[in-house]
């Protein structure tokens, strides 16, 4: 008779899965910076890595409008039941009216909404919306290639590639001139495979902060029509260019017009309230697909649901309830617009201060004044960024991007001096 | 100008059956309509139920104002140990063999589980029928195969354990068995401790994987620890397996999407590798999990007074459902409804798998305005003092005239 097997008697391989088939996944770069920053004992250390807003005291903030909305929500909320697979209906209408209809100021957008030509689904913030549309395009778009600007947010490529799209760069930025490389941008789009997807950053391009002018967008939209490219717009920073969210959607208004005129059949928009309401961790965003017909809207809506159901069933409600509370109360809405304006105002002040204190004899810093949003793309080399970290405890990604909300009155002099030193040292 | 459509391949998809039922319910003007379909707990007066423990946690949240910052890509740091302790108990949670990430509640956890298992070579998912309707589409969504076996016998209204055993014995290598830990959805028929022992013995030397889906922890026995027994029992044997956890039901946090994926990894060197891949998969779909629900869970779980209230909340829910089940049986007995109905008290949790046929279910809806799912599943929590008689009389009438 065989002895009863104890745990020890079993061979390890039988009980234990073969996890060694899995290679170690690389950590997220930004998180690595946060870790290293935490361990640095230099009292003057500065973290310019995170893409989240900090106030002049270096602290994260809760937008006062958001705080008020949340307080009233916590008092009145009586249940937490599921929202739909594609999220809350009021939230969908808010997104449509706010962005596509520009709160009743965009006739073309109004026409698209009225004609049932926009399908909106609430998603797991910006990343979730990019993932859902990527999965959707893999299944239903004729071309599987997506062109993304060089450079772009690192996770864009990871999300698209993992979904099965084939990501390729189009020229965007000239690292030597520290400026938009518009000539090569248009050239690479003209050379793009027809019917491919093209990713456009609506405003505050991440990481360069350098946006196209309306005239330049016009040229790009012309190429999009000629090559029948499918525009996928990512708008993570609505409001951070001008301080006013209604002013930062010029590209969308123009595309709406072209859609109404029948010149562009369809496009998609990914957006989130992570930055412009400071709702980062609540994961509040959406995907909208502008469709070719109301019948197609029905089909696309049902396909989005079919796609989302096996991924996560339905999106989280806390953030979307805050958005709904703000948009349903005119005073809160006013107050939010004021909060956002203040945040962007501080970023612009910080940008100016840094610019003034930088030594322009060794390096041309004019690009700083042209860039918009949460970042400055310094153009500093990898060696200079490493020197900043090792000698001055200034932490940022090695591509030379600073998240400028980490700058404030008490560290701007130290920072400018550190930059001036490394520019001199690595001249 | 004519434009060629990019989306010519598209056809409208039929609604998920449960969503279709809900839509019909919403459109029904009858004032006495009754919803016993979707798996949401209702209070004894039929109203929505906010757990008292959650109310307490919300008050703390309101005072502390933690803000809305990004958490980490593996979740809110203080949420992770609470999630682990809830399923595994404090002792196991402290042994360092769990790779855990916060997920978009139960579905998100299952999705992430399937992805990590796929990377490890486990690409076939075995589902006992009937089952939660999303398992098979979920496996297919990521290109994995599925196989089914009979879990529940409609005749005897009990688990067909022979069929379960046979499925495990004959499974091809690298098969994942999705097993619901308690309050089986939709049948309410749970495996006994002896049956779990048999399953452990069968799987321990086999190149297969067990995925525990624990969506209703505490709703079977009223005791969360007791309901998690099978998981801890497998752990004690030194096995590797995965657990998909949700706080949707046992804290009533449905729409907040609070849940976690735990992977038990025995080898210390492999654990960070497995974890890094879980984080990577999550980053490519979501970046971060939603903070608010996770904050509520961590406050409840790490504040002893609130945790005690939560234990009572869960016990109260389980007790109310046992009472309703008992009353259904008593009422049907009194009405002398044809057939055997004692399975209503043998089954556990929110759902009673009534055995009503599709036709009978349709008549419950169209003639009596009582909305259950097409497979005859009744959410017991949708019943209360005010509507129980109405429900039983309708069921009696439908059964009698079929």
From TrEMBL, chain A:
Keywords: Aminotransferase, Pyridoxal phosphate, Transferase. GO terms for cellular component: mitochondrion. Its cofactor is pyridoxal 5'-phosphate. InterPro entries: Aminotransferase_I/II_large, Asp_trans, PyrdxlP-dep_Trfase, PyrdxlP-dep_Trfase_major, PyrdxlP-dep_Trfase_small. One of its GO terms (molecular function) is pyridoxal phosphate binding. CDD domains: AAT_like (cd00609). Residues 44-419 form the Aminotransferase class I/classII large domain. The keyword Transferase applies. It comes from the Eukaryota. GO terms for biological process: L-aspartate catabolic process. Pfam families: Aminotran_1_2 (PF00155). Belongs to the class-I pyridoxal-phosphate-dependent aminotransferase family. Homodimer. This is Aspartate aminotransferase, mitochondrial. The gene is GOT2.
UniProtKB/TrEMBL annotation, chain B:
It comes from the Eukaryota. The lineage of its organism: Eukaryota, Fungi, Dikarya, Ascomycota, Saccharomycotina. Homodimer. It comes from Scheffersomyces spartinae. Belongs to the class-I pyridoxal-phosphate-dependent aminotransferase family. In eukaryotes there are cytoplasmic, mitochondrial and chloroplastic isozymes. Coiled coil: none annotated. This is Aspartate aminotransferase. The keyword Calcium does not apply. GO terms for cellular component: cytosol. Pfam families: Aminotran_1_2. Residues 32-395 form the Aminotransferase class I/classII large domain.
């Amino acid at each position: 008779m065989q002895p009863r097997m104890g745990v020890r008697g079993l061979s390890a391989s039988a009980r234990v899965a073969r996890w060694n088939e899995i290679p170690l996944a690389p950590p997220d770069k930004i998180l690595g910076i946060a870790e290293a920053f935490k361990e640095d004992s230099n009292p003057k250390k500065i973290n310019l890595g995170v893409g989240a807003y900090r106030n002049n005291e270096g602290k994260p903030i809760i937008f006062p409008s958001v705080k008020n909305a949340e307080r009233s929500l916590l008092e009145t909320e009586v249940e937490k039941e599921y929202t739909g697979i594609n999220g809350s209906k009021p939230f969908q209408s808010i997104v449509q009216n706010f962005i596509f209809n520009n709160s009743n100021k965009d006739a073309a957008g109004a026409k698209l909404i009225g004609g049932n030509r926009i399908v909106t689904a609430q998603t797991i913030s910006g990343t979730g919306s990019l993932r859902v549309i990527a999965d959707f395009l893999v299944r239903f778009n004729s071309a599987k290639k997506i062109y993304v600007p060089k450079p772009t947010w690192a996770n864009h490529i990871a999300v698209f590639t993992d979904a099965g799209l084939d990501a390729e760069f189009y020229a965007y930025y000239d690292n030597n001139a520290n400026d938009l490389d518009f000539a090569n941008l248009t050239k690479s789009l003209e050379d793009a495979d027809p019917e491919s997807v093209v990713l456009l950053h609506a405003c505050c391009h991440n990481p360069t902060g350098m946006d196209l002018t309306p005239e330049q967008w016009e040229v790009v939209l012309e190429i999009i029509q000629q090559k029948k490219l499918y525009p996928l717009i990512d708008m993570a920073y609505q409001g951070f260019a001008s301080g006013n969210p209604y002013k930062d959607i010029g590209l969308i208004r123009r595309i709406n017009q072209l859609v109404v005129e029948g010149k562009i059949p369809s496009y998609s928009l990914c957006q989130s309230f992570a930055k412009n309401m400071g709702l980062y961790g609540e994961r509040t965003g959406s995907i909208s697909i502008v469709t070719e017909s109301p019948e197609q809207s029905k089909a696309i809506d049902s396909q989005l649901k079919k796609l989302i159901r096996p991924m996560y069933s339905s999106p989280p409600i806390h953030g979307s309830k805050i958005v709904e509370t703000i948009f349903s109360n005119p005073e809160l809405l006013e107050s939010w617009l004021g909060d956002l304006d203040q945040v962007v105002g501080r970023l612009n002040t910080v940008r100016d201060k840094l610019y003034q204190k930088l030594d322009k004899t060794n390096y041309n810093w004019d690009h700083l004044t042209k860039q918009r949003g949460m970042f400055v793309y310094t153009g500093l080399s990898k060696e200079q960024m490493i020197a900043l970290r090792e000698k001055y405890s200034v932490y940022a990604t090695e591509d030379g991007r600073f998240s400028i909300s980490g700058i404030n009155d008490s560290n701007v002099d130290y920072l400018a001096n550190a930059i001036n030193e490394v520019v001199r040292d690595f001249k | 100008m004519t434009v060629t459509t990019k989306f010519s391949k598209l056809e409208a998809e039929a609604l998920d059956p449960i969503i279709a039922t809900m839509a019909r319910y919403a459109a029904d003007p009858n004032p006495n309509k009754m919803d016993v379909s979707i798996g949401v707990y209702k209070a004894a007066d039929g109203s929505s139920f906010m757990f008292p423990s959650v109310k307490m946690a919300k008050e703390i949240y309101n005072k502390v104002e933690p803000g809305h910052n990004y958490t980490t890509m593996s979740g809110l740091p203080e949420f992770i140990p609470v999630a682990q302790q809830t399923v595994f108990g404090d002792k196991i949670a402290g042994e360092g063999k769990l790779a855990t990430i916060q997920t978009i509640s139960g579905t998100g956890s299952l999705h992430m589980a399937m992805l990590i298992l796929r990377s490890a070579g486990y690409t076939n998912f075995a589902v006992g029928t009937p089952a939660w309707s999303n398992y098979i589409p979920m496996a297919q969504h990521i290109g994995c195969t599925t196989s089914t076996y009979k879990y529940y016998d409609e005749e005897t209204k009990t688990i067909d354990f022979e069929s379960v055993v046979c499925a495990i014995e004959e499974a091809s290598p690298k098969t994942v068995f999705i097993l619901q830990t308690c309050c089986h959805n939709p049948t309410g028929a749970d495996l006994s401790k002896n049956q779990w022992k048999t399953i452990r013995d069968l799987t321990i030397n086999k190149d297969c994987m067990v995925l525990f889906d624990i969506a209703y922890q505490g709703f079977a026995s009223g005791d969360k620890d007791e309901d998690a027994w099978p998981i801890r029992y497998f752990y004690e044997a030194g096995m590797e397996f995965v657990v998909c956890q949700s706080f949707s039901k046992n804290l009533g946090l449905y729409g907040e999407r609070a849940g976690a994926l735990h992977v038990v990894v025995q080898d210390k060197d492999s654990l960070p590798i497995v974890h890094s891949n879980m984080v990577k998969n999550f980053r490519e779909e979501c970046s971060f999990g939603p903070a608010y629900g996770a904050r509520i869970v961590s406050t409840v779980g790490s504040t002893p007074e609130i945790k005690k209230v939560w234990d009572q909340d869960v016990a109260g829910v389980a007790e109310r459902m046992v009472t309703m089940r008992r009353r259904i049986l008593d009422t049907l007995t009194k009405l002398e409804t044809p057939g055997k109905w004692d399975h209503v008290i043998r089954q556990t949790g929110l759902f009673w798998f009534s055995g009503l046929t599709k036709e009978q279910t349709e008549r419950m809806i169209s003639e009596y305005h009582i909305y259950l799912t097409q497979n005859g599943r009744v959410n017991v929590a949708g019943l209360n003092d005010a509507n129980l008689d109405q429900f039983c009389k309708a069921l009696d009438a439908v059964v009698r005239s079929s």
